[in-house]
Amino acid sequence: MVFFCKITGSLFILGAAGYFAYNLNQMLEKRNRELRKLYSILLQLKSEIQYMCSTLPECFRKLAKYEKEPFGIWLSVMAQRMEEKEKVSFADIWREELTHLYEESALGTEDIEPLKELSDKLGSMDITAQLKAIDYALLHIERNRSLLEEEMKQKKKVVVTLSLFCGFMTLILLL
Amino acid sequence: MTKKEEILKILSAKLRKILEASNLDFELLQELRIRIMGPFIVIYDGEEYFISERGGLEKRAELAYTIMQGDIKETLEYISSFSLYAYEDEIRQGFITVQGGHRIGLAGKVILEQGRVKSVKHISFINIRMSHEKKGCGQNILPYIYEDSRICHTLIISPPGCGKTTMLRDIVRLLSNGYKDHPGVSVGVIDERSEIGACYMGVPQNDIGMRTDVLDCCPKADGMLMMIRSMSPAVIAVDEIGKREDIEAIAYVMNCGCQMLATVHGASIEDIKNKPILRKLVEEKLFKRFVVLSGGKKPGEIENIFDERGSVLYDKKCVFG
Predict the structure, then answer these.
(1) Complex-level ipTM
(2) Among B155, B223, B149, which Cα is nearest to B179's?
């Protein structure tokens, strides 16, 4: 009976360690997916500004229709708050909603930082400066994503190995 | 959305609060003047007033609320929906038209490129002119526009702010829907500044009639030719002609069998004759009717109506003794 309990406990520990590794890998995958999505959203925003001359609320509303969580909500809340025109500046809305996006997504601070810099540029009269600022943000996002993809290959193995190693070590200690 | 909501929505929080406290009737409100470090001024029922911080209408400037830089910045953000770049062409011309057809005049430091206006920065002066849809104001003119049940080429002349656009809009509506025994005709409106139809997301906010097509935000000269080719209108209406290409396009439209309905800035026919570009309109008798609006306090009041020979068809002084 004691042996059976030990075996069951061991299996649980190993399972938990595996699940922990799987979760960490999923987080990395999710961040990668979201960086791709963010890149595509910024590209679409750029073309809406450049070719359609749409206003920012129009751009966000349009993009929100095709995006899933967390970006769909982020974009539609942006559009809604801008349409309400309730005693706020664009920079304030943008920064506040970026904080929400950070909380709701797997994106890191280093991914959000280049977006924050857009707060002073988006919506200004100078369309060229705006497009360049978006290009700059795109560059950062793409670089973050490349770094992440490189790291992912190593991190995935390390996470799985470490998790299982920790699991086995716990087992040995307990048994 | 009511006129009050349309206007309050584009003002900064402070100015919004002041106007809300003032209890103004927005139907009588004509203009809002916002100048940096200047008094908050309204043109209300034909009179100029200064507005105090508590919303009171004052006659003395020192009692008025002083407009701060933040008010201008915030108001500009709301006017442009946080997207000034989207209104670059309009700003270059000096104004933006917002939802409801209200015209926002802007002034500041002009940026030139090869001698032409490229943009305006440091915008510090804003003039909000209310759009007023006055149904029926064109009825007095219509009997003079028709000649043997045929619509005449008509030019409405008036100084700025005297109801040209309001008058044109109502005439368009009446011609489009039909007036008394005259059946409705298809009317093409070239709405360069979105003031006639006040289209918002493609939908006219003003009643411009059931047979009216609108080319919104389109340059007049190009728009007139496009409209003829695409929509075959019986009447083409344009607001505030003045450029050489406008006059050339008008001549083309008239030769296509379309009737022309246009407005122009001026106080009299003599004013038009003194402008080199517009002189042709009178001298070559392109227009058959000239409607001159009064420059007084009552917008849309008709001063005179002339035919192409200069004969007076209507005179306010004769009517009112």
Answers:
(1) 0.77
(2) B149
